[in-house]
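thread: overnight batch results

M.L. [08:02]
morning all. the overnight job finished for the chain we discussed friday. pasting input first so we're all looking at the same thing
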Amino acid sequence: MSRPFRLAVNTGGGDAPGLNAVIRAVVLSALNRGWEVVGIRRGYEGLWKGDGLIPLDRGSVRGITHLGGTILGTTNRGNPLRWPRTLADGSTEEVDRSPELIAAFHKHGLDALIAIGGDGSLRIASELHARGLPVVGVPKTIDNDLAATRVTFGFHTAVQTASDAIDKLHSTAKAHSRVMVVELMGRHTGWIALYAGLAGSASTILIPEIPFEIDRVCERLRAEVDDGPGYAIVVVAEGAAPKGGDPSIIEPERAGSSSRYGGLADRVAGKIQESTGIETRALVLGHLQRGGQPTAYDRLLSLRFGVAAVDLVDQESFGCMVALDLDEVRAVPLQKAVEDLKRVPVDGDVVRTARRLGIDFGD
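M.L. [08:03]
and the structure it wrote out:
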């Protein structure tokens, strides 16, 4: 594009290691074309607030590739399509603020947006594109649950963090002859729990794709502890559920936010101790999985995604998302990209490997 071009970039949803690397790649690739780049603070909120847009130059992104978090800030609340508004009687309703958002986008003289986010954020981006916003998506989620891309950045770092924690738990579990139940992120899919549990030599892995029977889990663990090393590690994804039961939710969905999952590790640990008599402890790794420096793999993938997103803007290929297909970064339609979640194939190679090694899935 020969005309002056003003590109915006934002980060939405939960943070993930690699966000800053994407931002750096977007900024440098755009500046090298002679464009101007601005960052939108806190997802889309910055378009409505006076301090919400910040200019991004080479100095702004120098030395941030290895940093976790995001220099733009993020939020998983305040969907502009379902914006929560408090009424006079104290109740809350959801309103569509997308016309106001698009008007603010043009008021600020912006020509295109690169939206970096997970399934929820990219669904918003897809809807905004349908309403006329020129947008390109970059897939981000530690859950690795976007079906249109082979992998999302942040996933490998989260697995490494979880694996490191599990490694440390082996020594304390063995010292006290305990069962340790580790709860990892994964509301709808069990990618982190499966990969980290397998890498960390867990005895049992519970994931959303395979409903479990707690009595069977206890029976296997009793045999594991009695006949094996005298301790055991159980890894659970926060969204795993018993057969015929529901996931453990600690905060229901409300206006402007999704349900919060949690408490499964405590429930499973309590049942194990009650049923087996083995001392059992629970650990929730939580947001440690989102923090810290991205691995080299995630940095490289993030940089590739950022550059590819700017290429799509240059080609005016709006309404698309960059995705990893085998070893190449390609464009896929945003609408198609958010149609389905990528769930763990229960008959796939990784689950099969775990079963062959004697890992129990509670089924």
